[in-house]
Amino acid sequence: MRVLSFPFVLIAIVGISVAIGCKKESYYFVHRYEIAPQGWYYDSTARFTFRIDDTARIFNLWLDVEHSPQYAWQNLYVQIRSYLPDGKIDTQVLSLELADESGHWQGHQRGKIIRAPILLQDSFYFPDTGQYRIEIDQHMRINPVRDVQALQLRLEEVHPPQKTTIYRSERTKR
User: Fold this and answer.
1) Which of 43, 52, 110, 128 has its C-alpha lying 20 to 30 A from 169's C-alpha?
2) Around Cβ 109, how many Cβ atoms within 10 Å?
3) pLDDT at 173
4) How many CB atoms lie within 10 A of CB 39?
């Protein structure tokens, strides 16, 4: 019976750990919007523009909200406008839950920044090819909203495709 040497076993374990730990995320689009240090004002719109060339691809749509632990509320109200290639506009007001009922922040904290990943829509496809634009405004009762540093929109390709829905164009206005 052959006994494996310690260096060989150590290298094998490290190699396997790196291979497993380095799962590559499949992001089709990622864009970050920095919010001014003075706060997020009503007239400061986060804009995200991307092109869809294949309507058979399935996506998850994520919005990462970066804020400080001093953020004063449990949630953040935003108005989201989606501009579709056919000229239609979908407008929604959402409450983004940044803390649970007991006040613990959702997401991950690094230093003085908390990043809360929020799934806006899962396992959907875009109905048309072309350019899409998503705009996000703060929709709180105060102006400006302080202690929110950035928004990041991520369009994640889903592998393998799961149960799907169409992009929210069925609620489109105008």
Assistant:
1) 43
2) 12
3) 44
4) 15
